[in-house]
Amino acid sequence: MVWRLLGIAIRLLGQRGPIGVLIVTAAARITTPAAAQEISDEGRIPGVPEPSIATNLPPELADPGGVRAALAGRGITFAINYIGEVLGNPTGGFAQGTFYDGRLDLELRVDLDKMIGWRGLTFFTNGYQIHGRSISANDLGVLMPVSYIEALPSTRLFDLWLEQKLLDGHLSIRLGQLSADSEFLISDGAGAFINSTWGWPSIAGVNLPDGGPAYPLAAPGARVAFSPNDQLRILAGIYSGDPAGDCEVDVPQVCNPYGVDFPLNAPLVMVEGAYKYNQGAGQLSGTLKLGTWRLFGTFEQGATGSAGLPIGLQPVPGQVTDHDYAFYAILDQMLYRLPGEGDPKGIAAFGRVIRAPDYGNMIALYLEGGLTFSGMTPSRPNDVLGIGFAYTGVSSQIIDYEKQSGQPVVSSYEGMLEASYTAQIITGFILQPDFQYFWNPGGHSPDPYNPAKTVPDAVVLGLRTSISY
């Protein structure tokens, strides 16, 4: 009954009618002419998101015709982001090459308090146009994809939800098509990198059906967040556990090509608690998170990982996973803080550890840790340097099966070191040179062109650009 009601609500959200009504209603109420474009006391045009290159543009380019400010007055804001990157592996992997991939992200947010007077209610949706080729799939077969925007080329809906805030904002409820990776398992320090494992870790991307409810496949679900004070936050979510639905092919996105199928199947439950400490001015702040997930269903593992990309690691043939689960801990800790107001800058450490049962899983242990250096150069206060290492440990069930079957190559682990520098050229426009080194790509998997040997360790060099408007 719960899944049926949830499915009806999501399909109503997904139809053009309600969304069109929201936009048309707002447009009909817009009376602010372009000549009367408003600018805030801080010099910002209403409706321009942060960060955005629009803040560096003259008003006629930042908000052509005054539409953005007029829409914002009625509660409607939009954002456009484009990420493009060149990635190449000059050595290692089962092949060498250079690839370009890109992602256009369009977002729409409607404050329904401003629009229709419904206090605390927000509508949000976004979609992607994904293009290019994946270096992870074509050259490496790694468990930790090189980039978090890699996916099958497509134009697809991602998030589509309503959020109601209650108790003066201490409680919020989301309902619709949701992405678990936008709220759970997040480490602030890990945001300095481009490898996808720093966001949705490889253990979740490989163990959960079709990569779980994460980029590029969101899933029907509901989420509750409760923050009794500024230090404590409790998250609980329930999602359709297999976002591709009843898929019998190796590429999950093929089964849900545009993100509008809204499959309802075995529920995935995620719970996470976060505690923030030392949040005062000048203190070395930190955040500790503890969480778990459990999938209430049965499925058969496949040779795909995060974002539905193919991996070198192969499952035990016919092995069925039943009621899968995992536990995790995340720590973000400031080690040295530069003096000054606003967001803390300086040196920070971060780490995550995730453990899942060996039986029924391809990955049993995930570890990561690293350091970030922000604002260390006075002339470039918004630049960030990150250095981190991630470890993905193959389960003993996979290893034992490979040994018993006499395979020439036995799996063990995959390790990845990344060093990345995020340089802000202007607000809303960044360049990010990146270096990654992989040990045992695919978890020490066999070379597809020479199964008697393993895929060689690989070096990946890349340059990303990101523009937000």
Word description of this protein:
It is a single chain. The chain is an alpha+beta fold. It has a single domain, classed as Porin, CATH 2.40.160.180. 15% of the residues lie in helices and 42% in strands. The strands form three sheets. It has a 16-stranded antiparallel beta barrel, surrounded by four helices. Strand 6 and strand 7 form a beta hairpin. The longest helix has 14 residues. The two termini are 42 Å apart. About 5% of the residues have low confidence.
Features:
469 residues, alpha+beta, Porin, 16-stranded antiparallel β-barrel, 10 helices, 20 strands
Number of strands: 20
Order of helices and strands: HHHHEEHEHEEHEEHEEEEEEEEHEEHEEE
Q: What topology, given as strand order, has the largest sheet?
A: 1-2-3-4-5-6-7-8-9-12-13-14-15-16-17-20
Overall mean pLDDT? 91
**How helix-rich are the residues, as a percent range?**
10-25%
How many angstroms separate the termini? 42 Å
The CATH homologous superfamily is called Carbohydrate-selective porin OprB
Largest sheet: 16 strands, antiparallel, barrel
